[in-house]
Design goal:
Elements (H helix, E strand, L loop, with lengths): L1 H15 L21 E8 L2 E7 L4 E11 L9 E2 L13 E8 L5 E7 L3 H18 L1 H9 L3
Antiparallel strand pairs: 1-2, 2-3, 3-5, 4-6, 5-6
Helix pairs in contact: 2-3
Length: 147
């Protein structure tokens, strides 16, 4: 009799505890076509960037990372799951942005091509901020290409 109470209590505790694989869902209300969307107060440090965007009904602070790549996929707003970073020195001149909060996105082309690898490395995060401010296609791509 004593053993069955222990098994029952153990089973009840297991049933009440959430599974280890439980995930948290975060929802952010956004105007996906960016009508009336204004992005401002951008800042960056190294490869990290952050910017606040708002419309008449909602606001969100976005943050992420920037990386230079040898991939030249053309227009701003195109996305890739992985970006190539292995090439000869001067080929890493295409700036890509990845949002990390409020959600993780694919790598999105900023549409900015630097003059050299050194220029891209030192300025890519600022290129991401400018692209988010001025190119709706980049903002849209960051929010529609979520991992």
């Amino acid at each position: 009799m004593h053993f069955s109470k222990g098994v029952f209590l153990f089973g009840a505790i297991i049933a009440l505890c959430p599974p280890a694989y439980a995930t948290t869902v975060k929802c952010v209300r956004l105007d996906i076509n960016n009508t009336g969307k204004i992005c401002y107060d951008g800042s960056y440090s190294g490869v990290n960037w952050s910017i606040h965007c708002s419309s008449s009904s909602t606001g969100v602070t976005m943050s992420g990372v920037a990386m230079c790549s040898s991939s030249n996929i053309g227009t701003a707003g195109r996305s890739l799951e992985f970006i190539p970073t292995h090439s000869y020195y001067n080929a890493l001149i295409n700036c890509f942005c990845r949002m990390l909060t409020p959600a993780v996105s694919l790598w999105v082309a900023s549409g900015t091509r630097a003059s050299s690898n050194a220029d891209c490395v030192s300025n890519c995060a600022s290129y991401c901020i400018e692209a988010i401010k001025n190119k709706p296609e980049v903002r849209n791509a960051l929010f529609t290409n979520i991992l």
